[in-house]
User: Which sequence fits this backbone?
């Protein structure tokens, strides 16, 4: 069974641009969560989607948004990029009946 | 809000046991997790324990949970150089069981 797939693996953007990251969950997993990992703040929860609806949200500004499609694939978008948005963005999926999270390898975003 | 604390660094010799500790302030009654992260990689679900258990053993891994003291530990028996990585304790928030609060991670260095 394929794991959680995140694309692209690396991204370089400049301040003010926007970016879209993609996540394909494990087959059969309908819950997708997003996390940000930085050296300073560590791992922080961004949001969770289930059945195309945002079910939970962390403490991030409105520049961070996401969506989920009917096939459970998810995207997250960051608009008006800031230097501090440079991070590893991790996606995780889980079954609805079992809350254990399985993570992808992440997208490393560098904002210059 | 929830807070999860871990020591930052642990160094052991190959073949010794490693014990990584974690304390948390609050959690919903559900699973508590240990994740492993190797350089340049995502998070690997290493093991977990359900909140109504005191101990769980999984091959070389033993998880101990003291709910009264809100203390979680991970013991790795016969530590190998391949165990060198960062280990994260993760606790679900009360706002959502897939919204995890992570510790800062413990870097385990295994010396040959």
Assistant:
């Amino acid at each position: 069974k394929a794991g959680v797939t995140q694309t692209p693996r690396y991204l370089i953007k400049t301040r003010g641009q926007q970016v879209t990251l993609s996540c394909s969950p494990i087959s059969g997993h309908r819950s997708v969560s997003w996390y940000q990992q930085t050296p300073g703040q560590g791992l922080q929860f961004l949001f969770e989607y289930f059945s195309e609806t945002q079910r939970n949200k962390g403490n991030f500004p409105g520049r961070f948004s996401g969506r989920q499609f009917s096939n459970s694939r998810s995207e997250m978008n960051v608009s008006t990029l800031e230097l501090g948005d440079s991070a590893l963005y991790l996606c995780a999926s889980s079954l609805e009946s079992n809350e254990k999270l399985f993570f992808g390898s992440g997208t490393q975003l560098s904002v210059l | 809000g929830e807070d999860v604390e871990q020591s930052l660094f642990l160094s052991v010799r190959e073949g010794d046991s490693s014990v990584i500790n974690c304390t948390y302030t609050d959690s919903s009654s559900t699973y508590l997790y240990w994740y492993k992260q190797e350089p340049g990689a995502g998070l690997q679900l290493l093991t977990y324990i359900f909140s109504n258990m005191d101990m769980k053993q999984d091959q070389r891994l033993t998880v101990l949970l003291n709910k009264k003291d809100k203390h979680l530990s991970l013991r790795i028996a016969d530590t190998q150089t391949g165990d060198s990585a960062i280990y994260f304790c993760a606790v679900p928030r009360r706002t959502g069981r897939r919204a995890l609060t992570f510790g800062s991670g413990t870097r385990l260095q295994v010396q040959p």
Q: What stands out?
A: Chain A is about 0% helix and 55% strand. The mean pLDDT of chain A is 95. Residues 49 and 55 of chain A are 5 Å apart (CA to CA).
